[in-house]
Amino acid sequence: MAQTHADRGRRGPRSAKLATNLRLRSEVQARLKRHDSPEQIAGRLKVDFPDEPEMWVSAETIYQSLYLQARGGLKRELTAHLRTGRSMRKPRRTPGHRRIQIRDMVMISDRPAEIEDRAVPGHWEGDLIMGSTASDSSVGTLVERTTGFVMLLHLPDGHGTLAVQKALVAKMLTLDDHLRRSLTWDQGREMASHREIAKATGLEIYFCDPHSPWQRGTNENTNGLLRQHLPKGSDLSFYGPGMLDNIANELNSRPRKRHGFRTPAEMLDDILAKSADEHGVA
Predict the structure, then answer these.
(1) pLDDT of 243
(2) Residue 20 confidence (pLDDT)
(3) What's the per-residue H, E or C state across 78-129?
């Protein structure tokens, strides 16, 4: 009988450690399924469990658990939730297809320095993600430079000038005035009505140089992440406004290293709360 009690005593710590390991594994699996990267997961666990180091794990350990599958490792099917690593997309349109001579463009070289250093929120980068050639479908993408907050434009009537103008104005008007400072886009024909967009939204609109996607680096990187949800060669008209909002919400809920593993949504909430406080004091 004494031996049985001793065995139980020895099993106690092991059982507690096993329970902790299962809890940690469950957290990692849930976040992988949400498409968080191993680095984001490792960083965010320290934020969410600051007093529980047993709930911390390195990104390398997560990768090894996925690919090596040692005993007790993560399920192999979770690797489907990892990023492809491709942050640049090859345009399937022919050169110049989206470009026309746009009147009264203000070029990115004339953009104020405050936009470049990301110190002031409300400056956006935008683009179109193109679907299959047969569908001629697209989704508009907008990314706020300071926070990385994403908004997606539903374009059920195509990606012509008026369709993009209507969708862009409607989406931007959901934001407070101080979050509508500027927009940087490439020289696609969909932005031919940029003066009307600027008048309706209050945005200062700047245009990139031809063939210079790095001038919208935040947007290009985000478009690469979005391809996990909006695959190349697919009919993007399938994705309605609710689906696009859900995809944007998922990206906005991912912890970001540059924000100390806080999320774009949390960063934007802080900006809105600060603005409300200042408004109240005023």
Answers:
(1) 97
(2) 77
(3) HHHHCCCCCCCCCCCCCCCCCECCCCCCCEHHHCCHHHHCCCCCCEEEEEEE
pLDDT the model gives residue 1: 43
Mean pLDDT for each 10-residue chunk of the chain (282 residues)? Answer: 47 70 86 85 89 85 66 52 42 48 92 88 96 94 97 96 97 95 95 97 95 89 92 93 97 93 94 77 44
DSSP string, 179-224: G-SEEEE-SBGGGTTHHHHHHHH--EEEEPPTT-GGGGHHHHHHHH
Q: For position 178, what pLDDT does the model report? A: 92
Which one, of 244, 236, 223, lies nearest residue 132 by Cα? 236
Rounded-to-integer distance, Cα 214 and Cα 129, Å: 16
Kindly give the interhelix angle for 194-201 and 161-172, rounded to the nearest 10 degrees. 20
Distance CA 277, CA 197 (A): 30
CA atoms within 13 A on the CB side of 266: 11
**How many H-runs (helices) and E-runs (strands) does the chain carry?**
9, 5
Q: 140 near 128, Cβ under 8 Å?
A: yes
- Residues 86 and 211: their CA atoms lie apart, in Å, by 18
Which of 172, 180, 207 is closest to 123 using CA atoms? Answer: 180
Query: What whole-number distance in Å separates Cα of residue 185 and Cα of residue 189?
Result: 11
Structure tokens given for 115: 């936009």
